[in-house]
Design goal:
By secondary structure, this protein is an alpha/beta fold.
Length: 248
């Protein structure tokens, strides 16, 4: 069986228990070496073959995956959660075409880890009930209707991947799209890793404050990092729901 596993944001103990157990019995692990913490490979057995996919093509990855007997445990180890910028669909489609069974094991995304280290909640009542996950167009384009300026018009909380190298342009586009220059913003570099770094500011100040960070970071934007919000109805004594009557 082939397993696509989300390795989590970086910390060795933030992989799921299921993912860890599969690494322990894997015969082959193909890992995204440019992003996955190599210490995660310490869960692998002594005879497990390990391949770094950083320099491999899709065809080479598929060939390696299918080189083992179908009853073997083959792990494709992706960073964070593989459903977000994981490029797994094209791998799964090839495996379908070749008649191989596979399973996807979710992981903790870096956007979850970033919120955790910021002690933040993306969906604050009265501030935003929507989280937009996106990225700036770079070498890889994005659909025109999903350009940053357009997405900014919603004023929602935003978690932006693969964009910190274009931080100045990103912040300009966000302001042009409708965010105020004093909107809270942060760069979280390698959330949960030992060398994690947090830079807080506003859309106006962040490009200068975080200019030294060029990759492996998330840009977070929105009023959810501010101090103003409404109390949640869920725990409001004056609010009834199916598990609790409102106080008289």
């Amino acid at each position: 069986m082939i397993y696509f596993i989300g390795a989590g944001p970086g910390a060795v103990d933030l992989i799921t228990v299921r993912g860890m157990e599969l690494l322990k019995r894997a015969n082959l692990v193909i890992y995204a070496g440019s992003l996955v913490n190599p210490e995660l490979l310490s869960y692998c057995g002594e005879n497990c073959e390990k391949l770094n996919s950083a320099s491999m093509t899709l065809e080479e990855v598929i060939k390696a995956m299918t080189s083992y007997p179908k009853e073997s445990a083959v792990v494709r180890l992706h960073t964070g959660d593989p459903s977000i910028y994981g490029a797994i669909r094209e791998q799964m489609d090839e495996l379908d075409r070749l008649g191989y069974n596979y399973e996807v094991v979710p992981g903790v995304s870096s956007m979850n880890a970033a919120a955790a280290v910021l002690k933040a909640e993306y969906t604050l009542p009265g501030v935003s009930q929507t989280l937009i996950v996106s990225r700036m167009a770079g070498k890889t384009p994005v659909p025109e209707k999903e350009n940053i300026r357009s997405l900014a018009s919603h004023g929602a909380s935003m978690a932006l991947f693969l964009s910190v190298s274009m931080l100045k342009k990103l912040c300009e586009e966000l302001i042009e799209g409708g965010y105020a220059p004093d909107t809270p913003a942060a760069v979280v570099y390698k959330a949960s890793w030992p060398d994690q770094e947090i830079v807080r500011g506003t859309l106006a100040t962040l490009p200068e404050k975080a200019a030294h960070i060029g990759r492996t970071a998330l840009v977070l934007v929105g009023g959810f990092m501010g101090s103003e919000y409404e109390r949640s109805k869920l725990y409001d004594p004056a609010f009834s729901h199916m598990f609790r009557e409102a106080s008289k």
